[in-house]
UniProtKB/TrEMBL annotation:
Pfam families: HMGL-like (PF00682). It comes from Streptomyces vietnamensis. InterPro entries: 2-IPM_HCS-like, Aldolase_TIM, PYR_CT. GO terms for cellular component: cytosol. Keywords: Manganese. This is Pyruvate carboxyltransferase domain-containing protein. SUPFAM superfamilies: Aldolase.
Amino acid sequence: MTLLDCTLRTGGRLTGGSVPLALAADYLAVCARLGIDVIELGSVHDPADRSAPRGALLPVPLPERYGPRFSVLLDTARLPVTDAAATASAGRIADTLATGPVSVGLVRLAVRYDRVARAAAPLHLLREAGFGVCLFLTDIDLASYPELDRCLGESAALGPLDAVFLVDSLGSLRPERVIELVQSTRAAVSAPVGIHARDNQGFALHNTVVARSSGATWQDAAVYGIGPGAGLTRTEQLLALLGATPTDLAPLLALIATHVAPLKQRYGWGAGPRQVMAGLARIPVASVTGL
């Protein structure tokens, strides 16, 4: 199993820039002791895109002989439409990552399930530049059976991938649908399958475990579920389910008490009525009004 922790990225989305430096430094020290495999630093953008948010990738000091790998997320919807322009944009991103303060080894390309072809050109460029590449298939619960077949066929045609992530963008996934999606993806794509579960309906941890039992070998989580809206699978709960002892988790729980719980008081992520209703209706939270 590969555990990818999204705390820095989803926490940065929540705060509109980046998490506090003190939180980032203490978090990185804790992750090195917990056996987390990959840490997602943030979202990455073409430096030529002046409208892109800044400050997502933190130049924080790392503990000596640091273990986990680092990833970033690239939203392909922000790239140019033509292959040539998208390739050029991905080249600038690759150059930025290569000269950054932290060695990034993995890029996850977020793409809607019905637009996988848009990811092809930047994905090939990044793979040729030496990065591991993953697909991060958003809105996947909305795909009909023919659309899912087409999506997975296009994904398989992209060549070697580190993983293909099924993203519960709307917090709408139910366990039976998770099983169906994981099994279909495993049958169609040779890459490992991952799950990114949101907690609108209180199913994030359960869906992550169900995905794992169905053959998904990559799991996303975030400390205390930190992230916009209802938040994600909670790292501390997933680790406990996987066998971590109270002693193992003590530094992480101290991090939550010191740094993350105060952020929750300020930003208030979690499954309130609007998030629950949006998940049930399979629509964005912003579309739910009057609650």
